From TrEMBL, chain A:
Name of the featured protein: Membrane lipoprotein TmpC
Family label: Belongs to the BMP lipoprotein family.
Main localization of the protein described in the UniProt heading: membrane
Species annotation: Pseudoruegeria aquimaris
Endpoints of the signal sequence: 1-23
Annotated compartments: Cell membrane
TrEMBL record, chain B:
Keyword Membrane: yes
A Pfam short name: BPD_transp_2
GO cellular component annotations of the record: plasma membrane
Alphabetically ordered keywords of this record: Cell membrane, Membrane, Transmembrane, Transmembrane helix
Subcellular compartments: Cell membrane
Annotated TM spans: 12-29, 49-79, 91-113, 158-175, 207-231, 251-269, 290-308
Full protein name: L-arabinose transporter permease protein
Gene Ontology MF terms: transmembrane transporter activity
Membrane topology reported for the UniProt record: Multi-pass membrane protein
Domain of life: Bacteria
Length: 329, 321
């Protein structure tokens, strides 16, 4: 009898919440996983912030394989979730296929442009943020050689690299930048061992600041840099706390802001092109108590000057993805 | 390219080759006994996870190593149960081990640490430190020999030396002991071994357990020696490269050492130089990354010396119908 009552109660509460659940926003995390201390985690934090502020709830799924992308998208859309946010450039082709089938559902894709009437494409000016950490790296480097370690070899990561090199060269024209990509498959995002080896190889070539834009691989980079006594630069989320006093700064990509805005705008969010850059705090550098001892006033002033210059348009940072080439590399 | 650069690349080669070598020898024991094992990757992954998890909780790398070996042996026994006792398809069982490890490590890791399937970063005693061999610092100033000793031979984690010692040990066990003779025989002709009154099942289980122990050391080395903690899928295909090395070495221990060092060297060079100019032609780094597989493909069909696997490999032994 009690069991029956439980079931009936559950059924009734389901029926009650069904109406509310209809318009719940949903978020799909990419293969790195929700707690990657980086990109996906930032997206999760944005969604959580929205839920805490509004008391609303959202649906979420972490992908386990490439094949699930379209399936997960359709499931949420058929379920009536709106808007649906995708954290990751890799959703583009799945979204191209799904978006026209659900014209009343709003989709938000982060890090990629999908040209459909019901899609908001959020892109970041990572080259601007990378330029700033490049300025800091050049200021902090004693050897005049700094390193860059990318994850999978894709144009987006070259965009990070290109902005970084421009920042370094603008500050110290004689500086050398050593660049490595971890690999050409998605496994390159989750190989801390190789990240560590690449860091050691760069150190032996004289690098004393290494910027990692490589997801889970970057953890190995930061670890090895801390072990070997050089400085590293984190990416996407604030990673300064991972090795206090050893991580120079982190290039913040405010994925949380993008997700938060999308959830807040709700069903009637504006579609189209949305750019988050230095001007609207979409990217930036992390300054907190963990790296305070590494950043002196001169470095701060240089970063502020570069930031103001980029916002006013005085400094033009070349975007690798605009023409698939980099003038300084 | 100066002498120090060569030493640094070789140093990196040793570090990168060690997990390959351990996994390769693991596969050697298993396959020489007639049990094909494409689950090396999964066993390493399970070991990498549990060793990092235990090391993170206890702060002791040695306990972590024991836990890693335990996890790997457990997986190996599962493979043995499916393919020896129940006579299932060894390849399918191996694939299942890989999937099982990839899924379980993330799920268990998430429920234990709530860090998205990763373990906390290891600090202090949770990692295997690099060992400085005696006189390494004193000899560092001596040109060539001193540099080789202090930079290349000294300064690795103890598991590197374990892996190097495992090569002659494997050779000795395989070719100089009664157990080794029986092990090789059971991979070629289990019927003959059975006729001699020796248990095929027990021999194969022993081989599979040895395989588990070696994979366990390999996995522990990845997460507690090279990296500082577990990240999902952190083996990144090393189990399959080890398998390629095993074929390349034609299932022999010393050749396995050579193959693993060669594959490690290719990766180390790829890490050091993004593009290599040889005689005017530029080799992209992707070429270096693909080379181990290409070499194996060339070896396998017999273009350059034929690689013949143990004859009874891949088949379950059926005593009587």
């Amino acid at each position: 009898m009690t069991l029956m009552r439980t079931f009936l109660g559950a059924a009734a509460s389901l029926a009650l919440t069904a109406g509310a659940a209809l318009a719940d926003p949903a978020i799909i995390f990419d293969l790195g996983g929700k707690f990657d201390k980086s990109f996906n985690e930032a997206a999760f934090n944005g969604a959580t912030k929205w839920a805490e502020e509004t008391g609303g709830s959202f649906r979420e799924i972490e992908l386990q394989s490439e094949a699930q992308r379209e399936q997960a998208l359709r499931r949420f859309a058929e379920n009536g979730n709106n808007p649906i946010v995708m954290a990751g450039f890799a959703f583009a082709s799945a979204l191209e296929a799904v978006a026209p089938d659900f014209p009343d559902t709003k989709f938000v894709i982060i890090d990629m442009v999908v040209d459909q009437p019901n899609v908001r494409s959020v892109v970041f000016n990572e080259h601007e943020g990378s330029y700033l950490v490049g300025v800091m790296a050049a200021k902090a480097s004693k050897t005049g050689t700094v390193g860059f370690i990318g994850g999978m070899d894709i144009p987006l990561i070259s965009k990070f690299a290109c902005g970084y090199v421009q920042g370094v060269k603008a500050t110290n024209p004689d500086a050398t930048v050593i660049q490595n990509m971890t690999g050409t498959t998605p496994a390159a995002w989750n190989d801390p061992v190789k990240g560590g080896e690449l860091t050691k190889a760069q150190i032996s070539q004289g690098a004393d600041v290494v910027y990692a834009a490589a997801g889970g691989t970057g953890l190995g980079v930061l670890q090895t840099a801390a072990d070997e006594g050089i400085l590293s630069i984190g990416v996407d989320s604030n990673q300064n706390y991972l090795h206090p006093g050893k991580v120079l700064t982190s290039m913040l990509k405010r994925v949380d802001v993008a997700v938060y805005n999308a959830f807040k705008d709700g069903e009637d969010l504006e579609t189209g092109f949305s750019v988050l850059g230095l001007a609207n705090d979409g990217v930036g550098v992390a300054m907190d108590e963990h790296n305070a001892s590494l950043v002196d006033d001169e470095m701060k002033a240089a970063v502020e000057a570069a930031k103001a210059g980029i916002i006013s348009g005085e400094i033009k940072v070349h975007d690798y993805m605009s023409d698939e080439s980099c003038p300084v590399m | 390219m100066d002498f120090l650069t060569i030493i640094q690349i070789l140093d990196s080669t040793v570090r990168l080759a060690t997990p390959l070598l351990l996994a390769c020898l693991a596969g050697l024991f298993s396959e020489r006994s007639g049990v094909f094992d494409i689950g090396l990757e999964g066993k390493m992954l399970a070991a990498a996870f549990l060793s990092a998890a235990v090391a993170a909780v206890t702060g002791n790398a040695w306990l972590g190593l024991c836990a890693g070996i335990f996890a790997s042996v457990l997986m190996a026994l599962l493979h043995g149960l499916a393919s020896i006792t129940f006579r299932g398809d060894q390849l399918i069982s191996g694939v299942a081990i890989n999937f099982l490890a990839a899924g379980l490590t993330v799920v268990i890791g998430q429920s234990w640490f709530a860090l998205g399937g990763r373990t906390p970063s290891l600090i202090g005693g949770g990692r295997f430190p690099d060992i400085t061999l005696p006189f390494a610092d004193a000899l560092a100033e001596v040109p060539v020999i001193g540099q080789i000793y202090s930079e290349l031979i000294s300064g690795h984690s103890i598991l590197v030396y374990v892996a190097m010692a495992a090569v002659p040990l494997t050779w000795w066990v395989l070719y100089r002991t009664r157990f080794g003779l029986r092990l090789r025989a059971v991979g070629e002709n289990p019927g003959a071994v059975d006729t001699a009154g020796i248990s095929v099942v027990r021999l194969r289980y022993t081989a599979v357990i040895i395989c588990g122990v070696l994979c366990g050391i390999a996995g522990s080395y990845l997460s507690t020696g090279l990296a500082a903690g577990f990240v999902k899928d952190m083996t990144a295909g090393r189990g399959f490269i080890a398998l390629a090395a095993l074929i390349f070495a034609k299932w022999r221990p010393w050749q396995a050492l050579g193959a693993c060092l060669l594959f490690g060297l290719l990766e180390a060079i790829g890490n050091r130089y993004q593009n290599i100019d040889i005689l005017g032609a530029t080799l992209p780094v992707q070429f270096m990354q693909a080379l181990p597989y290409m070499l194996t493909v060339v070896i396998l069909p017999g273009f350059v010396g034929k690689a013949i696997p143990p004859r009874a490999g891949g088949e379950a032994y059926v005593k009587e119908r």
